[in-house]
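Workshop exercise sheet. Pairs work together: one partner reads the sequence aloud, the other fills in the structure field after running the prediction. Swap roles for the next sheet.
Pair: D.N. / O.F.
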Amino acid sequence: MARSEIRCIGYGGQGVITLSKMIAYAAVVDNKEAVQTEAYGPASRGGSCWAEVVVDDERAIDYPRAILPQYYIILSQPGANRYGKKFCNKPGVTTIIDPLTVTKWRARKGKTYQIQAQQIATVEFKVPVVANTLLFGAFMEITGLVSKDAAIKTIKKFVPAKAYDLNLKAFEKGIALVKDEKAKEDN
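Structure field:
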């Protein structure tokens, strides 16, 4: 695997930073090196934010920032406008977007997964905050960067005990959505 870089972009309150922390923690559970960095504006809810995760299973991480991310999770239109055409529109780059919050998407060369995390979390699960756990499942299934066992241990660590079962269902839903999309591609 070597070095893998992930950049998550969205608004405060969408779970972008929590999602990035979950990815990093799961990598550590899998005995990989991982570092997570984040930045957000003065408004913690509704302001723009981003987070990066660097994972390496071969050597120590000598630089903690993402240089040329292979993976993007974009949950806001401003994030899509900034990163879509310039960074995500390359062979070998995989992007996850939520079509509810990213309505205009231009990248054509990389692989894009459209995961309706906010809508599913709100309508199917009745709890919008499980959207990031759903995306965590989708990310795990798409990338294979972390094992399912490590991901489940991470969910248990990050969510309150009373919300564990619901988050686990959202995680499994994220996996199923990606499996369905991959099956459609194979047909």
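Discussion prompt: Strands lie at 3-11, 33-40, 48-56, 71-74, 94-97, 111-114. What would you look at next?
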